[in-house]
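Budget justification note: compute hours in this period were largely spent on complex prediction jobs such as the one shown. Inputs:
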Amino acid sequence: MKLSQIGELSLLEQIRKRFEKHPPNILIGIGDDAALIKPSHENLLVTTDMMVEGVHFSLSFITPYQLGFKLVSVNVSDIYAMGGKPKFLLLNIAMNKNTDKKVIDSFFDGIHKAMKLYNLFLVGGDLSASHKGMTLSATLMGYVKRYIKRSGARIGDRIYVTNNLGDSACGLELLKRIKRPISLENTTTPPLTPPTRGGEYFKISSPLRGEGEGGGEGLSSKFRTLFSKWKLSWNDVEPLLRRHLMPVARDSKKFVRNATSMIDISDGLLIDLTRLCDESKVGARIYAKKIPLSSELKKVASNLGISPMKSALSGGEDYELLFTAPAEKKVKAIYIGDITESKRVIVDAAGREKTFSAEGYQHFGVQR
Amino acid sequence: MKLSQIGELSLLEQIRKRFEKHPPNILIGIGDDAALIKPSHENLLVTTDMMVEGVHFSLSFITPYQLGFKLVSVNVSDIYAMGGKPKFLLLNIAMNKNTDKKVIDSFFDGIHKAMKLYNLFLVGGDLSASHKGMTLSATLMGYVKRYIKRSGARIGDRIYVTNNLGDSACGLELLKRIKRPISLENTTTPPLTPPTRGGEYFKISSPLRGEGEGGGEGLSSKFRTLFSKWKLSWNDVEPLLRRHLMPVARDSKKFVRNATSMIDISDGLLIDLTRLCDESKVGARIYAKKIPLSSELKKVASNLGISPMKSALSGGEDYELLFTAPAEKKVKAIYIGDITESKRVIVDAAGREKTFSAEGYQHFGVQR
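Corresponding output:
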């Protein structure tokens, strides 16, 4: 059945029924002119993000379920990057009237999965026909006591990231070559291996991992041939695909006490570090050999002939946190460099300094 | 210059500079991962609305300035409909990369005009390329002490609307025949005439009226010929065009004390009254002869051969408020009927009752 046959009002009613349960601090949820939320003594956070088909995603690469999940994660990441707790979600969805009901259901399943993961409640939204592809936007509100701005980095602070970088960009590269969406809902992922170089390691903890049984089921034989040509197994590629298709936002609560500035890495380490430095009016020196790379990234990137370091520095969509903290504070994250007075440089394995900037991030290709 | 030549980051920077001024309760405005707002002792309201090119608007009918203005008004209307004060705005804009910079500037001028009118502050947003037309969405937050739900109507309550209905729909009809956008920024509007029938009259007070000099300037001679064929003057059509292109949301503060339920009329009186009745689990009896119609609507509709009453009942986009209040309360709005036990009926001029429903609103054509 197609969207045009269901009708907007009937679909809205279904969505409303599915998401209407809400805690007592939401006085009015979906279904009135506006949602109504009781006052809180904490500061209010609000962020919004848009995803446009053909610009931010292609349904040739991502399933509707993954898309719904990712739309929520991307916004949650922004709330976490302020040190906050995400709470209330609003969705605006424009999709072609010929969209199949199964696609819509699957999309909302992904939204729902992410909402449960992050403990969110849907309080509003709008649904419309579109002429061509899907345009999605989500607005997310949350609360924060001690908030972390981009602008708080001080000279001498250390620069940290919360986990491996570049996996997502390499996952996207894989998808561009595989040229089809891959369901990950029923596969098991082995825990990511610790970065072989770089600072302290801490385990990724995604509630999504370990669900269901089996690995890579449903892969066609054509697909297996491709893998064998690349000399890669499902276990090599699955973590990278997952990081791209179903990113789990990194909760900042462990870091909030010591962090002086924070941003989430959505456009790539170099561009987001530049933003943080611009806002803080400082410089940065980071060390290529300290950038954490997963063993999967290194293996897959090498077999595909791409640079793992380039993925990590400028690939984007990592949704890890980048933050600074005073050098004397003990911080359980990966130390990658230091805040300096003004220059922004990366030190390669041979000890040579190269400057970087937001504009140049796409052309940046430091080799380890 | 086109959007693709300016670049997303540079445009974001311009928007940020233009809108960065904010009051002290906004701790962080545009430019971080999320906006940050100090706690308030009042309840928080939030609403969101989307406008898709080719679905909700056509740039053949509306100027970018008017579009920006309307996008804000539509959301403000939802906050007013809860009895609230609008405050914080977020915008998501997807537009083609070939969009001219002048179009973008004009769009933001319209946004800005409306923000000043309603005293709003921009706290966030997202900007993206689109493949085809524009997709716009706005999220608006506000505060409310005493809030009015859709569900509070009681049997015996009177039903009120805040002003003339149908002007906007008739304005759209005009635009469909004129087939081009019409700038209203530099024209003067005579005050709307009081409805000749219907309940109490109160003056529309739009700060937009009376700006600039002259009326209908810039109208081509082709355009004047069209008007003369219809036997209409600029003064007849301007108020109707304005109601459609640059609607001013109706502040509810005068009605909040007495209202038992409230909704804004966005989809047409009958569909929105049905929604209010559904939520309140009541019926309604309204009187066709009490529905307020402007003299401009009656004249223009008659000359174009359309039904003014149909415009008023099911035309939509009026952005007037529809509310109920106990019969004994003195209310300065237009009384159009009463809340009853269950049936939803409209009484025509001859005293005949006809039932109405949300589904049937499009085909409903009561004659006065």
